[in-house]
TrEMBL record:
Its EC number is 4.3.3.6, 3.5.1.2. The active site is at C94, H181, E183. Pfam families: SNO. GO terms for molecular function: glutaminase activity; pyridoxal 5'-phosphate synthase (glutamine hydrolysing) activity; transferase activity. PANTHER family: PYRIDOXAL 5'-PHOSPHATE SYNTHASE SUBUNIT SNO, PYRIDOXAL 5'-PHOSPHATE SYNTHASE SUBUNIT SNO1-RELATED. This is Pyridoxal 5'-phosphate synthase subunit PdxT. One of its GO terms (cellular component) is cytosol. It comes from Propionibacterium acidifaciens F0233. L-glutamine binds at G62, E63, S64, R117, I145, R146.
Amino acid sequence: MSTVPGAAPRAAGDGAPLVGVLALQGGVDEHLAALADAGARTRAVRLPGELEGLDAIVIPGGESTVLRGLAGALGLLGPLRGAVEGGLPVLATCAGLVLCAGGPSGGPGVLDVDVRRNAFGPQLASFETRLDVEGVGADVEAVFIRAPVVVRVGPAGRVIATVDGRVVGVRQGAVTALSFHPELTADRRVHRAFVERVRR
């Protein structure tokens, strides 16, 4: 049995939530595997029709302008925004956070936050650390790759994680957005907490 917190898989039965992963760029397979370990049924989402029937969606990392361009070309941005505004829970990581913030990224704009892209430096400045994430736990493994930081959080938002005083995790309604990549570690607590919130 694994000694990594949150790593023990659970069987995804018929009552398990169906969680989509926006499958345009980034750690799609890694998110799908982490969600399955957390007890969810999963679906890769590339077309608007694949949003139907989802209980939640993950918007992974990558490059935010490329993600926006691909989602726009495939007709996903409008339906995705509508689904999230309708209450579909979201876990957004790294570029997914930028996309959810909208603004210059042209994304769905479902978070009232401002972000600064590549706030920790270029690819060579990537790093791993452990941090506390509200609603998830202490000492959560986190991988930062050209990561953004949140520089303003609107009144509806809540800061749930920081690194050296910089905001790297926020929650607003059913949207949880993180600057880092939880899918690139063996620590499944972020995905387990997300799946549990969806179940509730």
